[in-house]
Each structure stands twice: as structure tokens, then as C-alpha cells.
Amino acid sequence: MFASHPIHTEAVAGIVGRADVGASLFFLLSLLCYVKHCSTRGYSARTWGWFLGTGLCAGCSMLWKEQGVTVLAVSAVYDVFVFHRLKMNQILPTIYKRKNLSLFLSISLLTFWGTFLLGARLYWMGNKPPSFSNSDNPAADSDSLLARTLTFFYLPTKNLWLLLCPDTLSFDWSMDAVPLLKTICDWRNLHTVAFYTGLLLLAYYCLKSPSVETECNGKFVTNGKQNANGHSCHSDVEYRNSEIKPSFASKVENGIKNNASQRTQLPSTENIVVLSLSLLVIPFVPATNLFFYVGFVIAERVLYIPSMGFCLLITVGARALYVKVQKRFLKTLIFYATATLIVFYGLKTAIRNGDWQNEEMLYRSGIKVNPAKAWGNLGNVLKSQSKISEAESAYRNALYYRSNMADMLYNLGLLLQENSRFAEALHYYKLAIGSRPTLASAYLNTGIILMNQGKTEEARRTFLKCSEIPDENLKDPHAHKSSVTSCLYNLGKLYHEQGHYEDALSVYKEAIQKMPRQFAPQSLYNMMGEAYMRLSKLPEAEHWYMESLRSKTDHIPAHLTYGKLLALTGRKSEAEKFFLKAIELDPTKGNCYMHYGQFLLEEARLIEAAEMAKKAAELDSTEFDVVFNAAHMLRQASLNEAAEKYYDLAARLRPNYPAALMNLGAILHLNGRLQKAEANYLRALQLKPDDVITQSNLRKLWNIMEKQGLKTSKT
After folding, report:
1. Pairing outcome for strands 256-257 and 252-253
2. For residue 693, what is the DSSP state?
3. Under a CB-based contact definition with an 8 Å cutoff, are residues 30 and 279 in contact?
4. Does residue 172 sit in helix, strand or coil?
5. Computed from CA positions of residues 595, 597, 598, 604, in that sequence, does the dihedral angle turn out positive or negative?
6. Which is nearest to 677 in space by CA: 709, 623, 713, 642?
7. Does residue 584 carry a pLDDT above 70?
8. pLDDT value for 715
9. Under 8 Å CB-to-CB from 63, ≥6 apart: which residues?
10. In the Cβ-directed half-sphere of 89, how many Cα atoms lie within 13 Å?
């Protein structure tokens, strides 16, 4: 039953479930060690070696997953109620009379070790439980005490139903997958009452005061004497009058008594039920929100260890029925009913494994349980497959079910931004910030879009607001710190472009202070060097360029900027090596050829410079800065025809940029295309009427045109 149970699919098929499987392995090893400790206690010196194994395995189980530490409590239950078969009313008298001190020593050591492990775990967590978003556990965030209480009492019932009838399974049960129980009239409260009633009755049956007639392996004995079938079992009265030792009944099948020395003795049905309940209930306690709130509503992988108790409980129940009924037909019916249950469990497991084959199938399978989360995750998968329209539809479906999901609003905004739908992207980023004001990545992308749109003041305010978000109660602290650092980096770039180099340096330094360890700092260090370079603080600039190259040896911008610094300080041969290294690192990047061409131009190597300029413009023909600078270099190399070609391309890339039109007019002027030159000068003056250079060039052009008898616009 355990091997075929579908509830294990997530723990076995999902990578994160390895924690539960590993915890279960050491959980069982710890319990087995304690069983050995109990059986050798008082007889062998090795008993404390087994106890040491119990403690070490319990620690390993906890390191896999926190609930692993509950094996110590299960071991205590085993020792008291199964091994020594004490009843509830016998515990206090036994303590009072100080009987069997070895039992109390073992229980005390279990308690001490469990307390130590829990204390260490709490210390590693920073002496506070982890924080989760409201949607992860809606009941914990509810303002209504009644709703919290009713829901938390109901959730174990729902978990038991998943164990009993795992028909509907899901990778995620957060958000509204299990609606809150808000009133006493909710019919699900009947399930809760039935569950706890059954649980208490089972516990009472196992732990009640001993009676004269005691069941042992499905057979009844009286006062420890043999019954009609020749089967004997010690009564509980004997345990009160002698040293507390284990006493398991002989195994009886169809009235035949086996020799106890030849066959392993089995505990009574009551003892098996006690162990089953402890395995079912105790490992599940950390997930009940009883001691602290957890970050989920239901998690199927958490049921991996409790399912051991469930399978054992079902089995002992089926066995008790099988032994109790007399008719062969009923025995056969019980056997085939149990076999059918296992077959159905196995079929469901096989089907569920199909859902876990890949992410897309898994998320599609969860739509009926948690549509908001499933559609959102499906959107991420479809986006990674470049199915953009389907991904957008999935995100919008997710928001239909839950419109305030900040992550989903952000993901939709990011998708729209990547497809150049900037106005829509801004809208969704602002909604994401409204839903979660601490979502730094939304501020970052909002600022970048505003900066690219020329709305520098809005961008500056957005970056500043992002940098002021407190580092508390964050869903993902590492991602938050990286986004804040990126915001400061972009704010520094904004100041840099505006010529405020001191302000840029101040912001860059703040970014370095807030930068998390996983942040890649090479671009930040390079911009620090650029700012110092503009302030003519060359030693400081060189230091930061070197830091950039140390953090990422193949960082191309640092090779280019450091090459410029070396050229400026007279180290020409070193500078040329860095330019060539940048080209070697990425031969398809036109910007590298452009910088090298500028260096060659300054060295009066005009032919080589012209070749680099052409190469740069060919590779990055859609990048305005590359094309515009290439045209400049060709013009300085007196290759006016080639320069005209690239000035014309630059003007088409930015048709409303006055400098591009003015330079195109100037090269047309030089190349004798006077009427075209006039048209570009006039267009440049429309965009920038007070430009002195354009006005002067236009007057000179008109003089030439008048001398040649050409018609001008002023006439």
C-alpha cells in the first residue's frame, strides 16, 4: 500500500521532494535504532550505541526536513505505549513509584536531544520563523479568529481524505484552493467533527484502562490464560505487578499456535494502532499551524512520513476484520477489497507520474484545483518556449481568477516590455507595485522604461523610491537586494548622462554597500571608473576598471574603457592590446570596432580607422551611436562618400535628432549635393531653431547656391 500510494508522487517525482524522502530514510533508521535500544536495554552495553544512532539519525532527518525531528516523539510513544504497553492511567503511578528508571532515562535523553535540535534549528533561522506571503497560507492571514480556528481544524481532515481517496491531487494548494471556513454552518465542519471523533475513539480504545478481556492479534484472552485455541498472552495486570518488560503475543493463524522461539512475535492490535497513530499524527503536527504558521495550506510531500502510519493503520484494520469474521466469503471479500484498493492506488500513481513528466503537464493538471497559480506558472513555461501569445493569455487567465497577484502582474508587464509594448508594460508594473509596494524589480523596470522614453525626472523618482524600500518582510530578500542594487546602478547612469558625475559616484558607492554577494558587479565597477575618468581622477578610474576586470575577466566594456584610459595616459601599445582583446572576445559586436577605430584615428592611422568604422556600422547597422560615430570617423578620414552613406542611415534611425540632420546636411554640402543639404539644414533648424552652427552652415550654403544660380528657400 505504501509503495503504490499516489500521495507520494510529488515527493518522489519532484526534485524538492527529495527532502521528504531523505528525511523519511533517516526517520526510519532512527526509529529502528531506538527499537534495538529498547530490546537490548538492561541486557547489553551496546544499547547506548543504538541510542546514539537514534540521536544521530534523528539529527540527519531534521537536516533533510524539519519534521524529521518528530521521530524522537514517535520513539517515546513506542517505548511507553508499545514496548512497555503502559496505559494512560499507569504512567503517573509508574513515575510516582519510580519503577523502571531506564525507561525514564531514555525518555529524558530523547527530550533533551529533541530540545537541543529544535533550539539549534531555531538559532539557524535567526531565532524567528520564516515569513511567507499572504496567499501561501490565507487562513493565517485572516482577521477572523473563527475562520482561522475552523480552517486550521479542518485542514488535517482534508489531508486525511487525500490519504484515503487521492482522487484530486495538485502541485500547489495555496491561495483559494481550500476556501476558508468562515461560519459554524459550513457543512465541512461535519467532516472535522467526524475526523476528531474517530481519532479520539481510536486513541481511547488503545490507551484506555486495561480490562479483564484483552485482544491479542485478533484473539481474545482472559487474565493472561490460554483461550480455546491454545493461544496465550500476558495480561496487563502482570505488567503492573512485575518489572515492565516487553511481552509480545505468539502468532496464531487459523487456530494453530506457532512456537515463539521459532517465529517472530507480533505486538497486539492495540499496540500496532498506537504506533500507527503516532506515525500518522506526530510527524504531521509541524504542518498544522499549531506552533507556528507554515507557508502552505496543503503540501502533499509533507504527507510522505505520515502516510506510513496511515498505511499501517489501514492494514491493521483490514487484518483485524479478516481475523474476526468467520465466514470464508467475508474473508475473501476483505482480501479482494484490499487488493483492489492497492491496484487503484497504483493506477492513480502511474497516471499522476505522467503529470510530473514536465512542467507544462504538471501546471495544466493543477488548473482545476488552483487556477490562478497554475495558469501563472504555465505562462512562465510557455514564455520560455517562445509561445508569446499563449503565455500572455495564460497570465491574463491567472489574473482573471486573482487580480492582485503582484508576481503575475509583473510577469505580464515583463512580457509586454520584451515585446516593445511599453505603455501596457508600465500599466501592469504600476499595478504590481500597488499590490506589493516592496516589489523592487517592478520599480527597476518602470524606471528603465521611463528613462528610455526620456522621462528622466520620473525615472529618477522611481529609482530613488526603490532604493528606500526597507529590507524587512520580503518574499525573496536576495532578489530584492539585487533589484535595489540595479536601481541604484541605473540611477547613477542617469546622473552620469546628465553630467552630474559627483552625484553618480555617490549613488554607485551606495549600490556597492547594498550589493548582495550573488550580484555581478563588473558593470557597476566599470561605471565607477567612467565617472572618475570624467572627473579627471585617473588613478581612481584605473582602480575601478581593474576591479571590473577582476570580477569578470571577459567583460568587454571594461576592456574598452580601460583601453581608452591607457591611450590617454600614453600607454598606447597596452591600450591597443585591450581593444584587440575586446574584438577577440566578441567579433560580432560593432561597438568594439568603433572604439578601436577611434583609437586608430587618434593615432593618425586613417585607413585602418576607416576600415574599423565600416565594420562597426555593418555589424550594428540599427544602433544609432555606432552608425553616427562611424560616419564621423569616415569623414575625418576624408572618405566623404562613405561618410554620407552612414550619416544618411543615422538620420533615418533618428529622424527627429537635430545633430544627425545637421551632420548629414554638412556632408551633402561638402559632396556638392546642395539642395539636399539645404533641406536637411532646414529640417534641423525646425527641431532646434537657435543652433548657431546650423545657421552659419546654411548661410554659407545659400551663398554658394546663389553664385551657381540655384534657387534657395529664402528666395
Report:
1. antiparallel
2. H
3. no
4. coil
5. positive
6. 713
7. yes
8. 56
9. none
10. 9
